[in-house]
């Protein structure tokens, strides 16, 4: 949980918050919050969710499971949510007309695109 306490402190400082401000948001004492940053105590799951919302980051980022701060914030359909950068990639595909081409036969065209992408990626890595 060392990465958690480091990220917690870093996020608080990046947002310009004091420990007492976060403690009030969580409805806990300042010292209780300070213990989270010091690694002397671990927050409950409900508190971790609140912290992720306060700092607008994913729970995975907060806990150190990935390096992306982004929150999945766009629900596309049931069970499918996208990060902002994923939405930007889709928008870029749409702007180039490639998205429309992919949609003509989604499964087959996506597989072709993936094969092509990995071919190009391997070529670049070999250079």
Automatic annotation (TrEMBL):
GO MF annotation, one: DNA binding
Going by the entry's taxonomy, the superkingdom of the source organism is recorded as: Bacteria
**Which of UniProt's keywords are assigned here?**
DNA-binding
Query: Which InterPro entries would you find in this protein's record?
Result: Cro/C1-type_HTH, Lambda_DNA-bd_dom_sf
Ranges of residues in domain HTH cro/C1-type: 8-62
Gene3D superfamilies the UniProt entry points to? lambda repressor-like DNA-binding domains
Extract the SUPFAM superfamilies matched here.
lambda repressor-like DNA-binding domains
Q: Which PANTHER family match?
A: HTH-TYPE TRANSCRIPTIONAL REGULATOR ANSR, TRACRIPTIONAL REGULATORY PROTEIN-RELATED-RELATED
Protein's UniProt name: DNA-binding transcriptional regulator, XRE-family HTH domain
The organism is Amphibacillus marinus
């Amino acid at each position: 949980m060392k990465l958690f306490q480091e990220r917690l402190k870093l996020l608080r400082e990046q947002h310009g918050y004091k420990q007492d401000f976060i403690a009030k948001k969580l409805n806990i004492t300042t010292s209780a919050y300070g213990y989270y940053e010091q690694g002397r105590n671990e927050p409950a799951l409900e508190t971790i969710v609140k912290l992720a919302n306060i700092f607008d980051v994913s729970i995975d980022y907060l806990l150190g499971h990935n390096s992306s701060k982004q929150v999945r914030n766009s629900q596309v359909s049931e069970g499918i949510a996208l990060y902002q950068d994923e939405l930007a990639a889709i928008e870029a595909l749409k702007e180039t007309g490639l998205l429309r081409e992919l949609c003509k036969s989604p499964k087959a065209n996506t597989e072709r695109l993936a094969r092509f992408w990995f071919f190009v990626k391997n070529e670049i890595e070999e250079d």
